[in-house]
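Progress narrative, work stream C.
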Amino acid sequence: MASYASLLLACCLGMASMHLVFVAQGSPGSSAPQTPSQVSSAQLPGAPDMEDNGMAQAALRFGSGLMLGLVLLAFGQPTFADVEDVVIPVDDKGKTTTLTKEQVVRGKRLFIAACASCHVGGGTRTNQNVGLAIEELSGAQPNRATVEGLVDYLNNPTTYDGLKDISEVHPSIKGGDIWPKMISMKQQDLYDMSAYILYQNQTIPEKWGGGKVYY
C-alpha cells in the first residue's frame, strides 16, 4: 500500500506541476495590457506562441490521462507483491512465512471444498461463538492461531479447551473413515488450507469470521 500511496502522490504532484507551468506560460492575466500598436507589432511574432499554447494544452491533457491511467492500474487489482507482503505465523516460537498468489488460490480452493460448508466466511455454522477469526483461534487450547496449530487440529481435532477428541464430529485425518474427503488430503493440503485461513485473517480481519453480518 505504501507503493500505491507514493505512486498516487507522484501523479498528483506531476499534474499540479504541469498545471502551474501551463498557467504561468499561458494565463491571459500574466502580463500587462498591450496598446493597439503593441498588439499590431506582436501579431506575427505571437503566432507561434498561440501554437505553443495549444501544444501545451494537448500535452497537459495527455499527461493527466496517462497519470490517471497509472493510478487506476495500480489500484485496480492487487499485485503479487501485495500477497507476498502478508506475514503468516507458522508456530508459537515466532517463525513466519509468506505466500505466493498460487498458494493463496490453492488454499482457497481446498478450503471451499473441505471446510466452507460449515465455515463460510470464517464463521462456524454449528457454533457461532467460535469461528476462525484470529481472536477465537488464539483462545483455543492449544493455540490454533498458527499454521502448525491449525494443521494439528485438522489431523487430530479437539474441543476448544483441548480436553476431548472430536474427530468423529469434525472432518479430520484421524477420522478419515468417517470423513472420506479427508482421506485424500496430504499434509501439504492441510498446510495450504491453514495458511489461507490465517491469510484471510490478515487481509480482511473485519469480515473474516464476521458471520451473517458480512455473508
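Work stream C, second folded protein:
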Amino acid sequence: MIVCLFYHWRWQGIYAYHLLLAYIYDNRHKRKRQHKKYDYDAFVSYNTEDEKWVINDLLPKLEDEYHWKLCLHHRDFEPGRSILDNIVDNIYGSRKTICVITRHYLESEWCSKEIQVASFRLFDEHEDVLVLIFLEDIPAGYLSPYHRMRKLIKKKTYLAWPQEKEKIPLFWLKLHMALKTSEGKVDEDPILSVIVPDEDQ
C-alpha cells in the first residue's frame, strides 16, 4: 500500500511539474503564434511499440488518401533540438494532436509528456484540438493512475480501432471527420459518438 501511494504521489509530482512547464510554453506560443499558420494538420503521439500500425495503416490512409499533413517523431523532429522543445513546438504547430493509446503508450514517459501538453492546450484554448484513438481495449481500472486521461475520456468522444474488418472503413471516416472539425466538440456530430466504458467494467 505504501509503495502504491509513493508511486501515485511521484506520478502526480511529475505531472504537476510538466503541467507548469506546459503553461510556460503555452504563454510563449500564444505570443509567437498570433498570426502564424499551422505547419501540420495533426501531430501524431504514439509509442514506438505501435509504430508499425502508424506507418502501415494510419500514415497511408491520412496522408496518401485524405491528404492530411502529419507530424511524426522519426521524420519531422528538428535534429539538434531537445525532444521536449520539438514536442511542444510541433503540437502547437499542428491544428490537432492524435494520441494513439495503448498500454505501451500509458507506460511511456515521453508519451505522457505529449498528452499533457496536448490536453493543456485543449483545456486552455477550449477548442477541439485533441483526437484520442484507442488501438486496444484498455480497462477503466488500468487508467486509474492517469486521472487526467480518465477525466478527458469521460467528457470527450474518442475513437476505438475496430476488431472487425468490416468496421474499419467507418473508423477511417470518423477519423477523417474529426480532423476536419476546426472548433467545438467532436461529439456534436452523431457519427463520431461512442460509448465510454463504465469505470467498474
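The mean pLDDT is 77. No further action is required on this item.
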